Amino acid sequence: MGTTERVRLNTSMDAVTKIIWRLGWNPVPTYVFVAVLVSLGWAVTQHPVGMLLGLVGLIPRWKGIKLINSSWQTYLGQGESLIKEQGGSRLGVSLDTAQCTVLRTGHGEIPFGATPHPEYSISVIYICDAFFAVYHDSIINLRELDVYLPGQGEEVYFRHVSLLNYNPPNIEVTLERQDDETLHGRLWRCRCSWSIAGEVEVKPKYRL
C-alpha cells in the first residue's frame, strides 16, 4: 500500500486569523481566558458586576465560530478538488474524460455554534470508458486545514461487473467471480463488504 501524503490547504490566513480559527475549534483556551478575566474583574472591583468582564473573553470564541461558518465550505471544496485531482493522477484517470463523483462523511464533534465537522473522509468515484476507479481513505482535517492523500486507489473493469444498482443512498456493485481468480477484499471507510462466496458486493454508505 502506498504512503499517505499530507498537504496543507492554501488559505492565505495571517497569524491572527489562524489563532481565531483555532479558537473556534478548541474552546478550552477561551474558557481559561474567561476564568482569568472573571477573577480579575472580581479582584479589581470587589463586586459581582466586575465579573462581567469575563464576557469579553467570549469575543475571540465568537469570532472563531463566525470565521468557521463563513469559510468551511470554501476550504472543504478546495480539499475535495485537490483529492479529485490527485486521485486522478495516481489512478491514471483524465478528469476531462471521466465522470467524477465525490462522496463525503463527516467525523468528530461539531463545536457549539459551528456548522461543519472537524474532519471529513472523502472518496472519489471515476467513471471511465472501460472501468471505474475509487480513490478512497482521503481525509480533510478542517481543524488543522490539512489534507491526507493515500498513495493509491482501486480500479474495477466493467467486463467484471455483472450488476450495478443505485438505491439512494447506497451503490451496489456485483462482480462475478472467475474460477481462476482470487478476489481480495478489505473494509474501507465507505463500508464496502467483500464476499468471495461466488460474488462480491460493494455497498458504499454515502449520500450523493
Summarize the entry for a quick read:
With 208 residues, the chain is an alpha+beta fold.
Keywords:
208 residues, alpha+beta, six-stranded antiparallel sheet, three-stranded antiparallel sheet, 9 strands, 30% helix, elongated, disordered C terminus
Rg measurement, Å:
23 Å
What overall form do the CA principal axes indicate?
elongated
State mean pLDDT (0 to 100 scale): 77
How many domain modules?
A: 1
Give the % helix. 25-40%
Count of alpha/pi helices: 3
Order of helices and strands: EHHHEEEEEEEE
Q: What is the beta-strand fraction?
A: 25-35%
Report the major sheet.
6 strands, antiparallel
**E-strand count:** 9
Class computed from helices, strands and strand pairing: alpha+beta
- The residue ranges in which pLDDT falls below 50 over 5 or more consecutive positions are 178-208
For the terminal residues, how far apart are their CA atoms? 27 Å
